[in-house]
Structures are given as structure tokens and as C-alpha cells.
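re: ur question from the group chat, yeah i did fold both. here u go
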Amino acid sequence: MTHQMSFKMHQREVEPRYRIQIDAAESTEDVRKFFERTVYSFLEKAIGDQIEIQPGDVTFDPDSEPAYRLSPRMLDNEIFRRIDEGSDLSTILALLSGRALNRYKHLATKHPDKTEAKIFQVPGPRSH
């Protein structure tokens, strides 16, 4: 069976808004949130009729290549694996995560104060 399923139509549905969100993201946490939300709604539209999609099934992972990770639940799902192998699904996920990664890197270098690092900042010296 050489017929390949395409989810380009669903990609086009989520992409314009996603592009705007990613470009407007002000922190790496925003980037992560927008990516994960967009992928969730993309998967819902694309394959939600065949598999139950849960938030967290695809997470943004700037350190991996491509920059996303699938949950064990998805990886162990026979139907998902079959869809993934016979379609452009992973290509689209790689594209979406690539856009997120570019913005993530930009924010991480340009505004290191606005990345997740701010959680660990120690307050300055206090005068008594």
C-alpha cells in the first residue's frame, strides 16, 4: 500500500493562528504552551476520531531532534503507529516544533531573564 495519508489540510487550519502566537510569545514557557495546545488541537482534528488524544501526548522538547516528544501512551498505540508510518504526521509535527524551537532559541538568547531561568533567581542582598 503506497497511498499516503496527508494531514496538510488540518495543518493549514491551525497554522496561521499558531504562527501569530509563536511570534508573539514573550517567554519560552509561552512557546511551549502554544506549541502543545496547537498540536493537541491539530491531532484532535486530524486523528481524534480514531484515537483519544490527551493534553501532554505531545510535548515540546527543545533538546531533542525534532523538538517534540510523544508520550509512551501514543508510542504504544498500534493505531497511532500505523497512522504515523502511513502519513505526513511526523513531518508536520517536526515543522510545528521547528517553528517553536526557533522562537524558543531566540527568546532564550535575547531575554534570558524571561526564560524558565527566572524561577531559580535568587533575590539580591537586602539591607537590614
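okk and heres the other one u asked abt
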Amino acid sequence: MTRLSHLSLPLLASAALISACTPQPTPNSYSRTETMRPQSVELGTLQSIRPVNIRPGETRLGMGTGAILGGIAGSQIGGGTAANVAGGVAGAVAGGALGSALQGSQSTAGLELTVELDSGRTIAIVQPGGPNDFRIGDRVRVIGNGENTRVTR
């Protein structure tokens, strides 16, 4: 076996661990790009709460990383060129599926909150959270700029 094949397993494990370290957003946390920017605030009453599952973005990062690392690992299998190519293709497919599954396993529990604003308009916001975070009838603040809006009590 070559030295590269000995590195394949640690590379795959590292990719899985790095993808698991993605910080989970909450209604009370802000990214650096959200700070020091004006945001509109509207008040309203919470009309309904529905639990939802928030999937990670469709970046294909997990699948791509897995495919690359799987291809490297698989290409080290076998002694001839044909075996290396076949191993590389099989490794890329398996690695892509594994990377996609790892990224998909990072879903977050969330809530769909329907708020009747004091202006008379009704909106729904999906955000991370649990069923005990709000109660129907709560007076809430809707804070945001259209791209990133959250509901707080």
C-alpha cells in the first residue's frame, strides 16, 4: 500500500468532523455580518406555532468533499490502471453519498411562527427553536431586514 492510502481514512474522518462543527443559529445569536446594521422592529401577537425541521443549505459541500476524498482513497485500491480508475470512481460515489448524508444529518429543530403584526399584516417566520420557546397569544417583536428576520419575546 502506498502512503496516500494510509492517509485516506484520516482525511475522511477529518472531513466528517469538520462538517459537524458548523455553528447552529438561534434567535438570540447574530453572525458578525448582522451586527452594526439597522433593522426594523415591528410588534405583534403570536397566532400559531408549528414545529418544523430546518435542513442545512444545499451547498453540496459535504457531497463534494466526500467525493474528492473518496476518489483519492478508492484510486489506491488495486494494482493496475483499470483497478485504480474503478476504485477511484467507486470511492468518489461512496464518498459523495457519505458526505451528503453527513451534511444532511445536521438538521435543526425549528418553529414556524405566524404573527399578526399591529399593522394588521400577518407574516410567518421559520427559525430555530423548540415548542416551549413561545405560547400562542404572546406579544412578540419581529426584528429584521427582509433577508434575515427573527421573532423574539
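fwiw on the second one: The beta strands are 40-54, 108-117, 122-128, 139-144, 149-152. The helical segments are 3-20, 61-74, 81-104. idk if thats what u expected
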